[in-house]
Known about the structure:
- The chain has helices at 2-12, 17-38, 48-60, 65-84, 111-119, 129-144, 148-152, 182-198, 219-233, 241-254, 259-266, 271-274, 277-292, and strands at 159-160, 165-169, 175-179.
- The chain is mainly alpha-helical.
- The longest helix is centred in the first third of the chain and has 22 residues, at 17-38.
- The chain is globular, with a radius of gyration of 23 Å.
- It starts with a helix and ends with a helix.
Amino acid sequence: xxxxxxxxxxxxxxxxxxxxxxxxxxxxxxxxxxxxxxxxxxxxxxxxxxxxxxxxxxxxxxxxxxxxxxxxxxxxxxxxxxxxxxxxxxxxxxxxxxxxxxxxxxxxxxxxxxxxxxxxxxxxxxxxxxxxxxxxxxxxxxxxxxxxxxxxxxxxxxxxxxxxxxxxxxxxxxxxxxxxxxxxxxxxxxxxxxxxxxxxxxxxxxxxxxxxxxxxxxxxxxxxxxxxxxxxxxxxxxxxxxxxxxxxxxxxxxxxxxxxxxxxxxxxxxxxxxxxxxxxxxxxxxxxxxxxxxxx
Length: 296
């Protein structure tokens, strides 16, 4: 029952492995709860009040609102899937409200710090092949705003060298086209030649970025690289790949890009997801006002 649902998320909905694993954990936690508290062995027999009792317990136990929201989402998706396959007629989690999540401004690296990273690469990156790959990983993430998993699955066939464009496959297997600068395209062309020489004794791969033994990158590999270089150029508290995505969007917004254009570049399904980047622009304007206006 659960495995069929997880396979559906993985292969049809194209959820990331991390999300699928989190949903699995959430479901098993709920199943244990209803078995212990209500003696319900079959989760398909759970009712709305059982789900509501679980959410109340999660909140009472001081679980983070983001965590509770994900768990509720996991249950809603699970029961929706079972309604779709004919196992259920109604979704017992359908009318459960998730707790409100306090709005947080995205963390990003200041534009001048990012600029320094690329204007003076010799200060940060080694001139080895691995150093070149690490620089390109940072460059691609910041220049495109793509997600970590999108970078990991980026293939050479996704790069149009003649038109300076990348094809990115995002959540739900949705594809989008992102324009990039000529300098980045040239660097990728040089890197491709060097990579074929460096890994000539290893079976070729379709992916752009690979480990030393020619295998596809994994999430923690990318995280370590980003954490290292953000730490070298900035004092930002958060140093994850998503910070570079936030930096891309924030810098675009601060430099006059329209919100809808940023939405398309990021691959957001809703404009509401992109709206948060306008707050950073407003914060920047506040600082400028304080400095420039005589009555501030």
